[in-house]
Design goal:
single chain; 502 residues; mainly alpha; Amino acid/polyamine transporter I; 21 helices; 66% helix; 0% strand; amino acid transmembrane transporter activity
Length: 502
């Protein structure tokens, strides 16, 4: 019965119509939301993480991650154009694979969005702390006078105590999201422009400074390990986070004008723009500064976020140790002022990624609450701002606490575990619907669907098994907790369960 409890697509659309959000976003805003969600911690911070795992071969990791995301984006575009409602992969799975699988996907999306928002908050604090440590405020104070005490720069699991700036930025974004979608979208468009200008400036300076010797040896960590977490595939599994966020466009489907046209544009357009920037920035970072990993006694790269890595970085100024790698590269090239400007741009623009991650999380839980899988209070809409404010506030508090305590690398891998499951399920859903409902209107159709979707599924599985052991353990534990919640509450209280009782 569990797998037979499928919510028909027409019923999903009808449910959304009864308690819907205001349609106010166009194609440009959606594309900017996608770019805003994608360009962020992945390229500004995780470049160092990828370098430690793969060395210069992280360039290949960028390509592998981009291909997997591109294939999944096509699947997302088809389903989002068919079902222009909130909920993303959770909603699509509910209409194809049934309630239990939908619950597992929705529960896993917490790892993508809420944990992902924590990743970006920590990344933002790294740039902001670096900026405070390297500025003299135009000569008004001594260099470094504004720097926070070490205890407040990183979390207790990253060598510090409480990441104060990451905690505060999470709360600020929460307030902005409660105020309203259209307001946050307009702010986001400005922040996206800042990020694009900053990355363009970095490319102009770093790419011409690239030297071929910095690419040798090209594969110091090899292709990967059976346990995952190192090599090119391990780096691809981590840098995958750099592309995550484009699917947040689909969570805004219910708030989009003409979604059948604008959702595919936002999904594919944002991913294409970001891929071009990533390849240029990755080449510039490796070529200009070098990205050789720090090796352990076994000759393999040390695990980022480990005590051994922290000890090795204490006496090293390598790119792979930097918490602000792009600014680090420019300062190493003698462009200290430009490095500070990159830091300012990251400090100004990364909050847009936190915004979109938290936006996606609240819309997932809003939809799950509307379906009865979570308490009804989670789908309560503010009478003035027309936003799901209860779940937004709860999400903001959780994100703030996680970002204050945990290191960026471990958070990123954990976030990716939930994302990869969601991407794979969306691709499975497209294939099933092509067989079970072939005549339904599809404003956007995946080309070569029986090639594209299986490749997307394979890519997601491959990257999942190359995540760190910690990420896979957290994913398993989180899934077990989710199953307990489902059988204790959601199974009996879902909308479909109530209909079965009638």
């Amino acid at each position: 019965m569990l797998f037979k409890r499928v919510k028909p697509l027409d019923q999903i659309l009808a449910t959304a119509a009864k308690k819907s959000l205001k349609r106010q976003l166009g194609a440009f805003q959606l594309t900017m939301l996608g770019v805003g969600a994608v360009i962020g911690t992945g390229i500004f911070v995780l470049t160092a993480e990828a370098g430690q795992k793969a060395g210069p071969a992280m360039m290949l990791a960028f390509v592998i991650a981009a291909v997997v995301c591109g294939l999944a984006a096509l699947a997302y575009a088809e389903l989002a154009s068919m079902l222009p409602v909130s909920g993303s992969a959770y909603t699509y799975t509910y209409g194809v694979l049934g309630e239990l699988i939908a619950w597992i996907v929705g529960w896993a999306l917490v790892l993508e969005y809420a944990v992902g928002a924590s990743v970006v908050s920590v990344g933002w604090s790294g740039y902001m702390n670096g900026l405070l440590a390297n500025t003299d405020l135009f000569g008004l104070v001594a260099p470094g006078a504004l720097a926070l005490p070490a205890y407040f720069r990183t979390g207790m699991f990253a060598g510090g105590g409480f990441n104060l700036l990451a905690f505060l930025i999470s709360l600020v974004v929460t307030v902005l999201l409660v105020i309203g979608t259209s307001k946050s979208a307009r702010v986001n468009a400005v922040l996206v422009a800042i990020k694009i200008v900053a990355l363009t400036m970095f490319v102009i300076v770093a790419v011409p400074a690239a030297q071929s010797t910095n690419f040798e040896p090209f594969l110091p960590g090899g292709w990967g390990s059976p346990l995952g977490g190192v090599g090119v595939l391990g780096a691809a599994a981590s840098i995958f986070f750099a592309y995550v966020g484009f699917d947040a466009v689909s969570t805004a489907a219910e708030e989009t004008k003409n979604p059948n046209r604008n959702i595919p544009i936002g999904l594919i357009g944002s991913l294409g723009i970001c891929t071009i920037f990533y390849l240029l920035v990755g080449y510039g970072a490796v070529g200009a500064s070098g990205a050789q990993p720090l090796l352990g006694a076994d000759g393999m790269p040390l695990d980022p976020g480990s005590a051994a890595m922290a000890a090795a970085c204490a006496a090293s100024d390598a790119l792979v140790c930097s918490k602000e790698p792009l600014a680090h590269v420019l300062r190493a090239l003698g462009h200290g002022t430009l490095g500070n400007l990159i830091g300012i741009a990251a400090a100004l623009a990364l909050p847009s990624v936190i915004l979109m991650m938290m936006f996606g999380q609240t819309r997932i839980f809003f939809t799950m609450s509307r379906d009865g899988l979570l308490p009804e209070v989670f789908s309560k809409v503010h009478p003035r701002f027309h936003t799901p404010y209860v779940i937004t506030i709860i999400t903001g508090i959780v994100v703030a606490i996680c970002s204050a305590l945990f290191p960026v690398g471990k958070l990123a891998d954990t976030s990716n575990s939930g994302t990869l499951l969601a991407f794979a399920m969306v691709s499975v859903g497209v294939l099933i619907l092509r067989k079970t409902d072939p005549n339904r209107l599809r404003p956007f159709r995946v080309p070569l669907v029986w090639v594209v979707c299986p490749l997307a599924i394979f890519g997601c599985v491959l990257l999942f098994f190359n995540l760190s052991i910690t990420a896979k353990e957290v994913f398993g534990g989180w899934a077990i907790i989710g199953l307990f919640v489902y059988f204790l509450y959601s199974y009996k209280n879902s909308q479909l369960a109530r209909e079965e009782e009638k």
